[in-house]
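#structure-requests
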Amino acid sequence: MSNIDTWRALLSERDTDEVVTKALVRDVELPGGAGTMALITLDNGFDHTKPNTFGPRGLLALNGALSEIAERTDLAAVGVTGKPFIFAVGADLKGAAAVASRDEALAIGGLGHHVFRRLGELPIPSFAFVNGAAMGGGLEIALHCTYRTISSGVPAVALPECFLGLVPGWGGTQLLPRLIGPEKALKLIIENPLSQNRMIKGAQAYELGVADAMFEPADFLEESLRWAARVVTGEVVVERPSRDGDDWDKAVADARFLVDMKLRGASPAPYRALDLVARARTASRDEGFAAEDEALADLLMGDELRSGLYAFDLVQRRAKRPAGAPDRSLARKVTKVGVVGAGLMASQMALLFARRLEVPVVLTDLDQARLDKGVGYVHAEVDKLLGKGRISADRANRLKALVTGSLTKDAFADADFVIEAVFEDMAVKKKVFAEVEAVVSAECTLATNTSSLSLTEMGAELAHPERLVGFHFFNPVAVMPLLEIIKGAATDDATLATAFAVGKSLKKSAVLVKDAPAFVVNRLLTRFMGEVIAAVDEGTPLETAEHALDDLGLPMTPFALLQLVGPAVGLHVAETLHEAFPDRFGVSANMGKLVASGKPGVYAPDFSLDAEAVALFAGGDRPSTAEEVRSRVLEALAEEIRIMLDEGVVAAAQDIDLCMILGAGWPFHLGGITPYLDRAGVARPRFLEPGVASVPA
């Protein structure tokens, strides 16, 4: 039975809620008498917020349209484009999660290949007119066509499958490296998905050679048809270099090194993708596509896909509708921002506020040199953006003009939102807010970037503690997408609504958190670090403890993370949590020695272990094995999460998962931390109610 017949039979036996993307065909006369083009418009019938995706019914609909086109003898070409703003974004992920058997998974891979390859195997040339977002299978449709044009306004081009625990399974691993070379292809297939699912824009796709021509959005289709006519008549000849001379082995080896560094073998999908790209050098089209089918079938039935889809759903849905956020209509307008402090964190925040809100931002500090350095940092970063072509000269000048400095807090008199980024000391922060409250208006929101201190205590002496809110960024500010918004005992809804509105304008994913020590991410990371350091203090070799959890594929090992945040900061947070929960959070005397030594951590600049720093942790006589350290850490995390949920630190387990994914880099291929602990048998009772996560228990 063919893949077409298999899916027709399956669909006749079951209900599906697939939103079918239709293939709407109309004839278009190409300019200059070049002939008739059958133009297929992909459209699922919804507005542009609901992108075109492909499930089995959509693929069969496109196949039917191509069958009708193949029977015609009056056509000079066939074209494919999308509805406004959207070309296509690939497979129907809800349907992918519902695939019930490996045979069914194999059939869906074969069905996609069968339909898409028809575009490139017609007796007439085919053109993809990429007018909007093209991701996953959407990009693969375009790759199957003979030629491609792209709009300069396309916001997203990507092959995100490895991010979710899959591989590009409808031709991407075979066609893209043959088109643009293995090195560039692996950036889209491997590097970008593993870098927080990075997308490229239309102009970048054109520069890479993914498209043969690029036109402006206003008249994109008209210009694309005009260009296609010139190709059909031979006036324009598209020449593409042979890829036989490319160094495929080096490109694949370099990408494999990157995957090993990021995942340490923890997720199979990127490794399967690497093997497929390597195969593309010599494999026939049939052989390459069959290998993609096999890989897709294996991965569709694996835990990593279910985990990836759960995590994807969190960042796409729950992050956009924060649990517990007040009505947006309560938010106060922000026309000027004040930042207390001019250090690196404060300067990063000032730049972000200026770029996203486009309102005046004033930094204050008690030292002119420090203030000049902070404002200078912002201006230098703006110059970097200008140098990279990411902003125009006019916008660069406007941004620089928005960010200024002042030695007095009087500059905050007309500010609507003031945030402090000073030393993590309660007395210092209380003093800062007392000074700020004395000069700002009654409607001004006061925000703290504290990473661990009590918001309620911080505002206890304010005349209006109801306008104090926690606004906790993660470092680096411009990169990390999470924003923990903390509600103190007195924080009112208008202040919370303003904080959420500002967070959204900053393009951050905000999670509402109760005023509890270290909130979510830092509390869990400190418990995690505390257990690892305790094992080392007890006599476990540092290297053993450091790599005990490598199989999870975490973005950093524990002591590498400690070096990133700084031993002094790590020790301070540990002391804060020890004061709150002495039975679960310890304070390592050896960590105190490391801080006193002035060393930045246990690693030397060349990333080798610093023997002197490691020696500071020597002396214990109760060593653990790597497996014992791993179990100890996971059990501690499960205990802490259960306590946090019982305390109501967040609304639900999904919020802890979201915080760890966006704030700590918890790997997508593991899903959230709570379903992972459920699945690993560590968490009892289960964190998630049945049916909440599509991750096997």
